[in-house]
From TrEMBL:
Source species of the chain: Thiorhodovibrio winogradskyi
Record-annotated membrane-spanning stretches: none
An example Gene Ontology molecular-function term: methyltransferase activity
EC number: 2.1.1.198
Name the record gives this protein: Ribosomal RNA small subunit methyltransferase I
Length: 283
C-alpha cells in the first residue's frame, strides 16, 4: 500500500519510490494518471487498472498473482490507498489468506489538513465525502451535532457551498471551521472562520470554489464557537428572567452580535422547557 503525493510530486517518499521501482506490478486507479508519476521517477513498469468499478473482478486476480510469489504495489490517484479510495477488498482478502500487506506511509489530504488547520487534533472523526443531496446531508450533520471531536470531510468544488450551507443550518452559524484547499499545490489556501462566515465568503468568491478541499469543523463543546455559544446562552438566560422573551432575545443579539431570530427561537424553547419543569413540580 504505497501513499503517493496529493499534488506536490516532491512529497513522494524515498521508500515509496524504491518500492515502486522494485515491484513486479503496480495496481492503480487510472493508468494514464499514474504513468505521469512513474515518468517523473523515470520508471517504466507494468500497470493494471484497479478502481471502484472493477475492484470485485480484479482483486481475486491480483491475489492469485501475489500467492504465486509476485509483488504488487497498490497506489491511488493521490494520497493513501483505501482512504476514500479503492483497496479494502484486496487488503482484507490478502490478510485472510496470509499474504503480506505492507504499508508505505506518506501523504493523505485529511492528515495534511489536520496538521495545519489549527483545530483540535487530539480527537477527530473522518467522514469521507458528505452525502450528495441536501436532505441526506442535513440528516447526516444533525447526527453529528453532539460529536466532540473535530469533524473532517472531503468535498468537491461543486458541492462546497451547499455543504457549508447545510452544515451551518444543522451545526449552527458559529461553529468554527477551516477549509483547506489545494493542499501542497500552488494555490494552497486555508480559510478559517465560523460556518456562517465561511459560507458567506466562499459563496461570494468563485475562486474559493475551485480545486480540491478538506472541510474541518470543530467538535461540539470545545473551542471559540462553543465558548461564544455558552456565553450567549448565559446572557439570554439572565435577560429572560427579567424581560419579555422578544425583548430578551433582541438585547442578547445586540450584546453578543448573534442572530436575533435564532435567539428568539432559543428563548422560546427555554421558556417551554421551563414551563414544563414547573408543571411537573405540581402533583
Ligand atoms: N486517498 C486520498 C487521501 O489519502 O487523501 C483521498 C482520495 S479522495 C477520492 C479525493 C478527495 O481528497 C478530494 O476530492 C479532496 O476532497 C481530497 N483531496 C485530495 N487531494 C487534496 C488536496 N491536494 N487538497 C485538498 N484536498 C484534497
Amino acid at each position: 500500500m504505497v501513499a503517493t503525493p496529493i499534488g506536490n510530486l516532491g512529497d513522494l517518499g524515498a521508500r515509496a519510490a524504491a518500492i515502486l521501482a522494485g515491484v513486479d506490478l503496480i495496481a492503480c486507479e487510472d493508468t494514464r494518471h499514474s504513468r505521469r508519476l512513474l515518468d517523473h521517477l523515470g520508471l517504466r513498469k507494468p500497470l493494471c487498472a484497479y478502481h471502484d468499478h472493477n475492484e470485485a473482478q480484479t482483486y481475486p486476480r491480483l491475489l492469485a498473482r501475489l500467492r504465486a510469489g509476485e509483488s504488487i504495489a497498490l497506489i491511488s490517484d493521490a494520497g493513501t490507498p483505501l482512504i476514500s479510495d479503492p483497496g479494502f477488498s484486496l487488503v482484507r482478502a490478502a490478510r485472510a489468506q496470509g499474504v503480506d500487506v505492507v504499508p508505505i506511509p506518506g501523504p493523505s489530504a485529511l492528515i495534511c489538513a489536520l496538521s495545519a488547520a489549527g483545530l483540535p487534533s487530539d480527537r477527530f472523526l473522518f467522514l469521507g465525502f458528505a452525502p450528495r443531496t441536501s436532505a441526506a446531508r442535513r440528516a447526516f450533520f444533525d447526527q453529528l451535532a453532539e460529536e466532540p471531536g473535530t469533524l473532517l470531510f472531503y468535498e468537491t468544488g461543486k458541492r462546497l457551498v451547499a455543504t457549508l450551507e447545510d452544515s451551518r443550518a444543522m451545526l449552527g452559524e458559529r461553529r468554527q471551521a477551516v477549509i483547506a484547499r489545494e493542499l501542497t499545490k500552488r494555490f494552497e489556501t486555508f480559510l478559517t472562520g465560523s460556518l456562517g462566515d465561511l459560507h458567506a465568503r466562499v459563496s461570494a468568491d468563485s475562486e474559493q470554489q475551485l480545486g480540491e478541499f478538506v472541510l474541518l469543523i470543530e467538535g461540539a463543546g470545545g473551542g471559540e464557537g462553543a465558548r461564544q455559544e455558552r456565553e450567549e446562552a448565559r446572557i439570554l438566560d439572565i435577560l429572560c428572567r427579567e424581560l419579555p422573551t422578544r425583548q430578551a432575545a433582541a438585547l442578547t443579539a445586540r450584546i453578543t452580535g448573534g442572530q436575533r431570530n435564532r435567539l428568539y427561537r432559543a428563548a422560546l424553547t427555554r421558556q417551554r422547557s421551563e414551563s414544563q419543569a414547573d408543571d411537573s413540580s405540581y402533583p
